[in-house]
Amino acid sequence: MKRMNVLFLGVLLFCVHLCASAEEKIAEKKSLKDCLLLALQNNFDLKLEASSLEQKKQGITSSQGDFDPLLTANYSYSDSTTPSSSSLDGVGSAKPIESVTSIYKLNLSKKFTFGTELTIPYTETVKRSNSTYNIFGKSYNPNLGFTLKQPLILGFYPSYHRKNVTSAELEFQKSNEDQKIKMSDTMLKVATTFLDVVKFEKELEIKTSSFKSAEDNLQFVKKKQDIGMASAIDIAEAKSKYLQKQEGLIEAKKNLEEKRGNLLLLIYGDIENSILVNNDLDQIKHEIAEKSLEINADQYSEFLEIAMKNRSEILKANYAIEKATFEKECAGKDLLPKNNATYNESWQGMRGHHSDAFDEVKDRKFKTTSLQIEVESPLFRHASKSAYEMKNLQWQQEQLKQKKVINEVSLEIFVLLKKIESEKIRIQALAEALAAESIKYDGQKQSYHLGKISLSDFNQAIEDKEKSELENLKAKISHLTSLLNLYKSQGVIFQKLAL
Fold it and tell me: Can you give the three-state secondary structure of 97-134, one letter per residue?
């Protein structure tokens, strides 16, 4: 029995330990960087973007298939029986001509970046016939050769011949910048949502404090009524303020839970998890920008220069122009005449035994050589000229898009710098106003308890203090959000957040 009790106690302690560990895990506070790293691992949009990028990468490998060696094989068999029409057929007029033919073909080809095409065909024909004029009852006729085809004009442009590869590579680079844009947007969204959660947590604290003040005041007025020093109107006014603050508290809780849900979706992909954030604004500010006070509008040129080197939207526009320029050049080369030189040489043999026939091929006793030069230039090039004009227009459009992106980024940085500068001044002014409002509130509270001011004046003091605290909080959060937007505008949000 004693052993059973000890065992039961051990199991109970183990369960308590598990529950405590689970609670500790749920209660663990996440920093801004923790949330950003979780989003990089779990966010669905980023996973889709990574999959799309991998697809573009496979497109490069696929486009290189034009330069892969190609080996093809073919076999054909025919068996024919035809009537004899002449004594020259060698079978006699009473017999039909019977023949069996097997053809084996093997072909190796390879294309090179200068447009050169090398083809090595091997064909062997095995034939058997009942004709007496057939030298061999069963003949072997192998044929081995090579063909070399070289574009004479376009051969000077290797980039033209690997245009599909180059286009795929540039498309991959554009998609790579797309992924960076998506990651940057997601990181900004996670960071701003994190700040919203912090803001609503702080708002909840402020509204809880105001609610507590209204609740204490209601109890104070009730005590005064008990001794005949407060009227029914005073009770109604105090209760009205209490209910108003209660409603504000409920609204603040609802807003906080909604923002927490948004943050969970961003960093986990679902809302099944629980999360508590580290809402220490000083620590968050240190995480985001240790030297934010040094930022001012005079640094516009410096920040714009950084954006031109790092901002993915600008880099993507640059790759788009590079791709459009390259495609326009290729379309221009399509207008050139097709001028090819083809050299062909083949060796053949024919014997009753396979080895003897192939020896003739190796000895190159019987060979055929040919050289062909061709020039192809259509009289009408409407389709090719239209294709070139389309590529030229696309190139012009990409240039306009690049200018538009650069102008948008320039304006974005200029506006953010001005906003950050004004926010710094506003934060200082609101901090001083809050300090003054807190002193005023303490004085009003003391005066009210001494009966020197009315209930309405004290309620107004509660409202003024809450309003000042909320404005000060919003200004700080807005300033941090502006800094994050500035980092994104420069394309350095990952470096600044140490990711």
Answer: EEEEEEEEEEEEEEECCCCCEEEEEEEEEEEEECCCCC
pLDDT score recorded for residue 291: 57
Q: What is the pTM of this model?
A: 0.79
CATH of 30-59+166-192+259-325+392-496, one of 1.10.10.10, 3.40.50.9100, 3.20.20.190, 1.20.1600.10: 1.20.1600.10
For the stretch 461-494, pLDDT in tens is: 889 999 999 999 999 999 999 999 999 999 999 8
- The b-or-e profile of 216-229 (16+ CB within 10 A means b, else e) is ebbebbeebeeeee
How deeply is 313 buried, as exposed, middle or buried, from its count of CB atoms within 10 A (0-12, 13-18, 19+)?
Answer: buried
- Which one, of 235, 295, 279, lies nearest residue 416 by Cα? 295
The identity of residue 462, as a single letter, is I
- Give the model's confidence band at 4: pLDDT under 50 very low, under 70 low, under 90 confident, else very high: very low
Question: CA–CA separation, 482 vs 421, rounded Å?
Answer: 10
- 14 with 243: CB under 8 angstroms? no
Strand order in the sheet with 138-151: 70-82, 97-111, 117-129, 138-151, 338-348, 366-376
β-bridge pairing 117-129 and 97-111: antiparallel
**More confident call, 30 vs 1:** 30
DSSP classification of residue 289: -
Cα pseudo-dihedral 292, 293, 294, 296, rounded to 10: 90
